[in-house]
């Protein structure tokens, strides 16, 4: 991608005054979201690893998705904030800096998108295959899938910015559109499978069937619903950016569109802070694990403060 195409998304020096407040607002928002994305996702990763009811395969996929969200907070958002600060100070941004930012950003975005796809398919197979799930979806295969996701994301981010005209549209538009179609189709199929399973659960409850099987099926359905919320949040946060970029590419940039472009990027980054909240809201085991972690941490903090206060009072009495 040429520098002209990259820099058309960023303001000119003549547009400095009109977009200055937008840059400041986005800089402040990203500094806050930077902290929440890192802290919430690190806490979520620890909670996922401590949650025993979740299958090891699902844990691996959720940890990979959380790692990509941590990457947003640790790398992408600080980089983006530095771009905003440089523009506020100098009134311009170098082409090389834009290229590096887009390569890193697209890599993590692609990994997040494929991670959502992988978790969606995993939860569908867990509900659809039922008893055969553990035989077909093994941990080694899931590790291979996660490794492939990150390798492909790195390759795709390099190819997208390498200047190969025929490959870029395939990755940028057709690939993402195909992924959205696949995820939507999976959830439509999952909806009918869940309806069938709910009918079976009700009949088993009437007949007083095996309680363990009923609990396991209900748990898999709840986790599938939770991942659906993750997908919806991802879609809502990314669609404004896709629409904005498409309008700029076809109709040309304007001051209004450039300002909207800034906030649409921040909205994408917001998604990394929303995912842990969705896990905590819709997945009971993860919520309980996070509560236990916070209780343990607050208890240790209280004991440290109490011991410090006691030691301080002893020193005071001695003096």
User: Low-confidence segments, ≥5 residues, pLDDT <50?
Assistant: 314-319
Q: Give me the oligomer status.
A: single chain
| N-end to C-end Cα span | 71 Å
H/E series: HHHHHHHHHH
Structural class assignment? mainly alpha
Count of separate DSSP helical elements: 10
Mean pLDDT: 79
Largest sheet: none
How much is the radius of gyration in Å?
23 Å
Helix content class = over 70%
Quick one: how many beta strands?
A: 0
β-strand amount: under 5%
Label the overall shape.
globular
Describe the structure.
The structure is a single chain. The protein is mostly helical and 319 residues long. It is built from 10 helices and no strands. α4 runs antiparallel to α8 (211-251) and α8 (211-251) packs antiparallel against α9. The protein is globular. 29% of the residues are buried.
Blueprint (SSEs and pairs):
Elements: H1 3-7, H2 16-50, H3 56-90, H4 95-129, H5 133-136, H6 139-160, H7 167-207, H8 211-251, H9 255-282, H10 284-318
How would you briefly describe this protein structure?
By secondary structure, this protein is mostly helical. It has helices at residues 3-7, 16-50, 56-90, 95-129, 133-136, 139-160, 167-207, 211-251, 255-282, 284-318.
